Amino acid sequence: MTEVVGLHLGTNVDIPVSIAFLPGVSVISLLADVLGVAQGVPVSRRRLLRKACPEYLADVMGPITAGGSLHIPESLLMRGELKESSMREEVRRIAEMPPDALLTDLARTYGGEVPPAWRKATDNPVDFLNAYAGLARKVWNAVAPVWQQGKPLLEREIERAGVASVTGTMSAFLANLSPRIAFVDGNILLPDHAPVEKGVTVRKLTLMPLVSGTRACAYHVDHHGHMYLGYPIAGLAPLLQGEAARAETAADALAMMLGELRADILRTGNQPVTMGKLADLLHCTAGTVTYHCRQLEQAGLLSRERRGREVRILRTLRGDALVDALS
Question: The whole model's pTM is what?
């Protein structure tokens, strides 16, 4: 069973949540996939990237992917926005970074005990930073076309997050980010093996939509409690297969927010319906319906009521608001 690390955000996610488009994180996610940390990158794209990567790939990305997860030290978190010039500036910033800045960041990230995996970087930080920047520059050339094609999906993500914030359904939004990210009882659950400073309370969340793979997951939590969370952008799969992004932007908005099955459940719940009837209507098992209804109930979108041997579901006012907003 895969271990996870949980970070508490609160059941109602009442902390500030924002969206940041950071193409550099998609670059790092792609490189991690080439090294075997699965990010859901199509096989054909992975092969092309492997051919494009220099021999020193493992030396640069090995420390970042140590333990089987993808955790990015703050100094290496490329923050270039949508413009290509911004990404080039970030690559230049890393290449010109003072060595002491990297060493200080690593010491802070790992509580003063930098793991052996970072030995080459700490022994020669100048060479490491130059290699890291060069690798990012090479892969960005391969990522840029997909990033540009995905702009409609990226813009749609602002709308999705905005609706979730306004309707008080951010918990439901977070619960459907990725197969590798869960949101349970106010805690966001992520793959383990990454350093998270003990005692840090998440006070701010920045979501980073990625265009690398359908199972992408990248994160960083700084010592101020600011969490950066990378996840696959909704509608990514067709884009990675070479299909136009515009078809996805016309898709069912509620399904993009919650997933198709949960969207169908929420729409059906406009009047009381038994769990058995719901399973029949949606052509799925009772266990599947129960699981998804619990998730929707936890998000405050559904209420469940037992009457004798039957359990009925009904949309809450918050559920009504979400369906109305995305209709």
Answer: 0.73
For residue 191, which amino acid is it?
P
Asked if the model's pLDDT at residue 248 lies above 90, the reply is no
Burial, 81: exposed, middle or buried (Cβ in 10 Å; 0-12, 13-18, 19+)?
A: middle
Which strands sit side by side in the sheet containing 302-307, from one edge to the other?
Answer: 273-274, 310-315, 302-307
Q: What is the pLDDT of residue 125?
A: 94
Q: Is 313 helix (H, G, I), strand (E, B) or coil?
A: strand
Please name the residues in contact with 64: beta carbons below 8 A apart, sequence gap of 6 or more.
Answer: 28, 32, 70, 71, 72, 73, 76
Q: Can you read off the two tokens belonging to residue 83?
A: 């413009």
For residue 131, what pLDDT band results from cuts at 50, 70 and 90? Answer: very high
154: left (phi over 0), alpha (psi -120 to 50) or beta: alpha
Q: Which residue has the tokens 């980010």?
A: 177
